């Protein structure tokens, strides 16, 4: 099953550290699609649907990669 947006999926070790991806987009279906792909790849992710939430998650999660407004 797909983790709820904002949750962290199992990690993949990258260079000895756990990679994390922050997904930030207002399109909830697109965020779920990207989150599903990351989850299947074994990557950890956090998801936000607005700028404020994205900034808060960025500060809290300290992601390795950020996917922004993909449309």
Mind explaining what this structure looks like?
- The chain is α/β, with parallel strands linked by helices and 71 residues long.
- The chain has helices at residues 28-40, 51-61; strands at 13-14, 17-18, 20-24, 44-48, 65-68.
- It has a 3-stranded parallel sheet with strand order 4-3-5, with helices on both faces. A two-stranded antiparallel sheet has the order 1-2.
- Helix 1 (28-40) links the parallel strand 3 (20-24) and strand 4.
- The radius of gyration is 11 Å and the shape is flat.
- The N and C termini lie far apart (25 Å).
- 24% of the residues are buried.
- Mean pLDDT is 79; it is low at 1-14.
Q: How many DSSP-defined strands?
A: 5
- Helix percent reads 25-40%
N to C succession of SSEs:
EEEHEHE
Mean pLDDT: 79
Largest sheet composition: 3 strands, parallel
Contiguous low-pLDDT stretches (5 residues minimum) are: 1-14
Adjacency order of strands in the biggest sheet: 4-3-5
Q: What is the rounded Rg?
A: 11 Å
Structural class assignment = alpha/beta
Basic shape: flat
From the N-terminal CA to the C-terminal CA, the straight-line distance is: 25 Å
- Tally of contiguous helical segments: 2
Short description:
The chain has helices at residues 28-40, 51-61; strands at residues 13-14, 17-18, 20-24, 44-48, 65-68. The protein is α/β, with parallel strands linked by helices and 71 residues long.
Essential attributes:
71 residues, alpha/beta, 3-stranded parallel beta sheet, 25% strand
List the helices and strands and how they pair.
Layout: E1 13-14, E2 17-18, E3 20-24, H1 28-40, E4 44-48, H2 51-61, E5 65-68
């Amino acid at each position: 099953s797909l983790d709820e947006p904002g949750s962290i999926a199992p990690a993949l070790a990258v260079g000895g550290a756990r990679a994390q991806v922050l997904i930030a987009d207002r399109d909830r279906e697109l965020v779920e699609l990207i989150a599903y792909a990351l989850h299947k790849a074994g990557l950890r992710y956090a998801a936000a649907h607005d700028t404020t939430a994205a900034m808060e998650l960025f500060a809290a999660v300290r992601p390795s990669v950020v996917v922004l407004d993909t449309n």
